Amino acid sequence: MATLKVPSNVPALADDCDNLRKAFQGWGTNEALIISILGHRDAAQRRAIRKHYADTYGEELLRSITDEISGDFERAVILWTLDPAERDAVLANETAKKWHPGNPVLVEIACSRGSAQLFAVRQAYHDRFKRSLEEDVAAHVTGDFRKLLVPLVSSYRYEGPEVNTRLAHSEAKILHEKIEHKAYGDDEIIRILTTRSKAQLLATLNNYNDTFGHPITKDLKADPKDEFLKTLRAVIRCFTCPDRYFEKVARLAIAGNGTDENSLTRVITTRAEVDLKLIKEAYQKRNSVPLEKAVADDTSGDYETMLLALLGKE
Q1: Each residue of 138-163: pLDDT tens digit?
Q2: Which domain of life is it from (predicted)?
Q3: Rounded to an integer, what distance in angstroms lies between the CA atom of residue 89 and that of residue 188?
Q4: 43 is in an annotated binding site
């Protein structure tokens, strides 16, 4: 499901670091060489490159990158080079500090990562920012959003396949009753969405559909302009169909008069080693255009080349 292409014969670690050093030195930066290395190494290999580079040259690789390149290309390379948990921690910190109701990043991190991955994000956040993720979310987010997002980023869900069908039926009824009375921020809705395992939540949502004749997301569109309802829908879509959720984020990032580079970069860098192939398939099916072509038509230069490398271009 990943799109990342790693060569069958990966050069020696010392060679990768030496070539990156050469790319940074001289009169001009060799952007193509940076992409050819970092754009074709998996998380473990990038982690090893960062350590060896720092040990060899006495400088953090990310600092060298920042000193030599800039703009959207720099952000894509930096986010990609970070360890996945560290990357999520950085994205979560940016979002918490500048939080606004329409920003879905915290939901994406909390709901499309596994429990162990989310725990690693919280550890990385603590190590990097000397505060807890929960602390910063609670400090910057308000109202019903805080009630929802703090337990979402704090959760450690059971990940087994067991499902309690009776519980699924009763909690589907609870969800319907609360939504019918427009009590969208009710503690029961938040409890169900933030504590149940993915298997249990899927059973509840399927039961909702079977019992009431339509998916819960339809009832959560009562007011399309309500950002909290939009956030609840994002929670459900990230759990039930992450590929289609991220396809929509990429589509909206590309559509219109201007490109939302931050959203496009986020989707590609966070999903290239996960399910970007499925996202590409969903994009092709929804838009009748390959995602690679859409990205190439809407971006340019080294930024375009980096994104296309992560999308699987040889």
Answers
A1: 999 999 999 999 999 999 999 999 99
A2: Eukaryota
A3: 28
A4: no
